[in-house]
Amino acid sequence: MQKILVIQNKRIGDVLISSVIANNIKKVFPKSHITYFVYDYTTGVLEQNPHINRVISVQEKELKRLPKLLKTMLKVRSERYDIIFDPYAKFQSRMLCLFSKAPYRIGLKRQHKTLKLPFYTHPISFLEQRTKSCGKAIEDRINMISSVFDLKNPDYVPKITLTASEEHYSRIAKLPRPVIMIGVLGSTPQKSMPYEYIVTLINYITKTYKATLLFNYAPHQKEEALKIYEQCKDKALINLDIYEDSIRGFIKLMRQCDLLIANEGGSVHITKALHRPTFTIYSPYVNKEHWCSFEDGDQHDSIHLLEEKPNLFDTFTLEERRKIEENPDTLYKELTPDMILAKLKPFLTQHLITTNAS
What we know:
Blueprint: E1 3-7, H1 12-28, E2 33-39, E3 54-58, H2 60-63, H3 66-79, E4 83-86, H4 91-100, E5 104-109, E6 122-125, H5 136-146, H6 164-167, E7 179-183, H7 195-208, E8 212-216, H8 222-231, E9 238-239, H9 247-256, E10 259-263, H10 266-273, E11 278-281, H11 288-291, E12 300-303, H12 305-308, H13 310-314, H14 318-326, H15 329-332, H16 337-351
Parallel strand pairs: 1-2, 1-4, 2-3, 4-5, 5-6, 7-8, 7-10, 8-9, 10-11, 11-12
Helix pairs in contact: 1-5, 1-10, 3-4, 7-8
């Protein structure tokens, strides 16, 4: 039996996407024992996955402290893993790989870059561009397996498995339909669109459709979410009482909703795995090619400023681009509500019943 470790210390969407490694390596080694090493706030997307045998979680701040990192390196080495996958490819995960002495250490690196230390026995370059509808992030992770092992018929679709009780979640059973989940804030300030813009979108929806709107945000963002709510016109159609403060709670709730409108992030990837329609609003600094999984303009659609104003990005120097990533506020304001609504309106028309034209 092969002992396999997957290191994915990043955010919720990254962890869910990386679950395709477990789903596919089990095809190569059906009797393998697979462990995931992730941040503690992301474990919910891996629970009940039949291909994952164990999940080890760690606090993000703790792992970045040298004593904790050294202790974790010793622990990983003592486990004697046969194969380690490192799609995270940062200092901490590379040190875990190097010190593990695992016979197969498979990690991602940039094209044409030579690693200074032999962190990996099999360094795999990021693909230059995506070739499939699943998005480059998923393709890169499948490529980590197929570049080393004989993987037949890869499965590119991340999956979320619910328990019987989770499937019978009924908190919104009596709410007026359709029920629309609105991701009012991104997972980080850099992914959050201007408040007045999200309010404009919400006001359009409540004016045009007889729907129930729910807000999704991280628990620590409640105060900011309330600021957005206070600016909305038709508060009667917004239900703030229905809210889940955990990943599994959101999964149960989102499975019963009709669609999601949100900034790009973990909630979008969860919703796609639940086979619910999504409309994604990308922050200007996010590379859409990486994360636009299964966007077909039908079930899943999106908007990115780069597509609306492609020449705008050509004028920036490398230094200016870095400043944009740190604070994309100025560029986000270029992605106006009118631009978003031009794409959002047909998406809503397709999935909802219009009650009065705007």
